[in-house]
Design a protein that fits this description.
The protein is mostly helical. Helix content is 75%, strand content 0%. Helix 7 runs antiparallel to helix 8.
Length: 220
């Protein structure tokens, strides 16, 4: 792989300039003028960590759901900054899928969940899934709303569906684990939390939850 990157790409210079002046807009515009998402994907595997950081950061703004796998792989990068940037980036691209109207609906549903309007979120997500059942993020957002309404079996179902469609969706694995805990199913909760941590090793709260559950299991 090392021979593929003989000269440090311009992307590294753009990233260094961003670090110096903190002008994110200029960075994104500069990258967009020179690189397409497919090239950024290739650069996300560069041996130089600064290049990987820049590529992952850029994909968070310029990429979409087609870049989900590359960003999912970046979640387990050896460099912590790459992992942090991938965490932010992948959450963004999960909403950039489908038609323009479907993306708009996903955005509305996500805002309803954040605003704790769970019934409205469930209704909109259900309507969207009736139209496009392959939208992983619609399943996830509905699952989160159901979890907060204490409909735990439904939350497990929707998070499971999310992971079937998007195997990198660590947040769905976390909610599934929490729902299983509420249902009193410790072994399934532990399995879900371990899956989440495998996808995203920097989920410290999940790591602690696994340790607590493992200790309880050993104590009994």
């Amino acid at each position: 792989m090392g021979g593929t990157f003989l000269r440090k790409p311009c992307l590294a210079e753009l990233y260094q300039k961003y670090l110096d002046d903190q002008d994110l807009s200029a960075f994104v515009q500069g990258v967009a003028a020179r690189y397409c998402p497919a090239t950024l994907e290739r650069l996300a595997a560069c041996p130089e960590r600064e290049v990987r950081r820049a590529a992952v950061l850029a994909l968070g703004f310029l990429g979409d759901y087609q870049n989900n796998q590359v960003l999912g792989q970046a979640l387990v990068d050896e460099d912590r900054m790459v992992r942090m940037l991938a965490d932010n980036a992948i959450r963004s691209v999960w909403l950039r899928v489908g038609t323009a109207a479907q993306r708009q609906q996903l955005g509305v549903i996500a805002r309803l969940v954040v605003g704790q309007r769970y019934e409205d979120a469930i209704a909109r997500a259900t309507n969207l899934l009736n139209e496009a059942e392959w939208l992983a993020e619609a399943w996830y957002q509905r699952g989160v709303a159901e979890f907060h309404l204490r409909r735990f079996p439904e939350a497990v179902r929707d998070c499971h569906e999310t992971l079937e469609l998007n195997p990198y969706h660590f947040l769905a694995a976390v909610i599934m684990g929490q729902a299983y805990l509420e249902l009193g199913n410790r072994s399934s909760a532990l399995e879900a939390f371990r899956r989440a941590l495998k996808l995203n090793p920097d989920l410290e709260g999940v790591r602690q939850q696994i340790a607590r559950l493992t200790q309880r299991t050993e104590d009994h």
